[in-house]
Records
---
Amino acid sequence: MAYEIDEVLIPEEELKKRTEEIAQEISKDYKGKNPILIGILRGAFVFLSDLIRKMDIEVEIDFMAVSSYGNATHSSGVVRILKDLSENVRGRHLIIVEDIVDTGLTLNYLIRNLQAREPASIEVASLLLKEGCQKVPLKIKYLGFKIPDRFVVGFGLDCGQRWRYLPYIATVKKV
Ligand code: PRP
């Protein structure tokens, strides 16, 4: 299947503005708490790097890489850890940083997995949320944008590994 960029859904300026707002919110909420921001590879790396550079508190970062056991179009909810955290998070304040929440099954797994490590708290920051697609109830404390159920790329998100580098969020179409 071949794809091409369709239209810009969220321009660069809007992403920048909303990312800065979230960075300020987190800075206010976590002052003196030295949270660990956990970026979920690969998609979240752009949002995470923009986010931390607009924060004015001390934070640490770590990464996890996960892969769904489902196929490309159907998430199964069973997740395999490809790369685990580098640090022990017991007693620490954690913020999971995602690029997009679709069914929510990945996030649901990650929260349960991290909870078992006895952190002080866990919250979620996600740049995007696909509206009406969640299969499990989730609380996303820091949300960038709700988007319609479209395939989107850019700002870290890909379609067959393409277009992660775009500075905006765009929809793709089949050609
Ligand atoms: C995306 C995203 C989430 C997950 C969300 O990752 O970063 O981790 O899918 O889907 P869900 O809510 O339906 O579980 P993806 O599998 O595309 O990997 P990538 O970030 O490496 O591109």
Note: Residues 13-147 form a domain with the Rossmann fold fold (CATH 3.40.50.2020).
---
Amino acid sequence: MSFLSDRVKSVKPSITLAITAKAKAMKAEGIDLIGFGAGEPDFDTPDNIKKTAIDSINAGFTKYTAVGGTDELKNAVIHRIREDCGIEYKQENILISCGGKHSIYNLFQAVINPGDEVIIPAPYWVSYPDMVLLAGGKPVIVGCPESQGFKMTAGQLESAITDKTRLVVVNSPSNPTGAAYSEDELRAIAEIAVKNKILILSDEIYNRMTYGGFKATSIASLGEEIKALTMLTNGVSKTYSMPGWRIGYMAGDAEIIKAMHKIQGQSTSNPTSISQAASVEALQGDQKAVTDMAVEFEKRREYIVERLNNIEGVRCLDPQGAFYVFPNISAYFGKSYSGGKIEDSADLTTYLLEEAKVAVVPGGAFGADEHIRLSYATSMDNIKKGLDRIEEALKAL
Ligand code: PLP
């Protein structure tokens, strides 16, 4: 007999977190493993941010705050969105939560009724479909292969809309592909959303990590009508290398924000007071660390894309943002080794982990089984060593 709810039975655990845990366990056993699984920057949190946190503890800022975040942090978020996206919000449009993941969870809980459809372009971040399921909704996956740059066209969106569609997810730059939408592409999607009156979740968590002169556009900046339908999410985890601090935020329609606030008030209450104080410094203080990180990521991206494309049977698009590459490795499907046959991305991942001692994430987890995801949030030395191992292991197949 099981006491578990149907709701929880419908959900898969996060594969990316599982792979990170497996890689950590192998390392703890003393295995010389190179990890390309990380979903977090490998840099330390900048000193000015850490100092603000320590000062806030010493000043006794250790009690409950307002459920939806402090006024100071909401103002810092408003400032940051104005600077980066050119959009104006008021405090009533902002909710601070325990990471962007929590922001998205709250949103889905607030706007999805049982059976409502949520359009999710694939490849997608692993958590979207399961968070939709947890809210009683139905994920509608729209395949966006590499031939279209891993991006959803306006035509695809229009064809996927039904009278049950509530929301569409736009994640630019994307996890897992690093692909980012141009302003024109977003405009075309915005037009369809406005025409059909559907909400947009605009997940902009990688918006400051862009390369080759590309600048991310927020779909909410493309006019008042689309702004009214867009729920914009971001956070400090990636941009300021603060994933453990757990601060994310959502900006959008005041009524929806109020509903999300109500859910948060009956679940987590406020995000950690100390992390909130530190995030004010992150969002408003010196931004040099952000640019420095992007410069380093850009060098790694160039190296990794070139190396991968030089391996026979591997094809890798040049991503505009984030810190992931998403090469196509399907040429290796059907090959055998002493441990078995490689039929899909999960098998290839197992092969690389066991034979080459390299951890990558199978594309199947992101709805694109012909691929694997490599994160380059690891040192250049590791990247070089890891790619040597991958190259050798693939050649041996
Ligand atoms: N959105 C995307 C696309 C992500 O990749 C992540 C983290 O991996 C998040 C949101 C949530 O990040 P956090 O909860 O740390 O703010």
Note: The two ends are 45 Å apart (CA to CA).
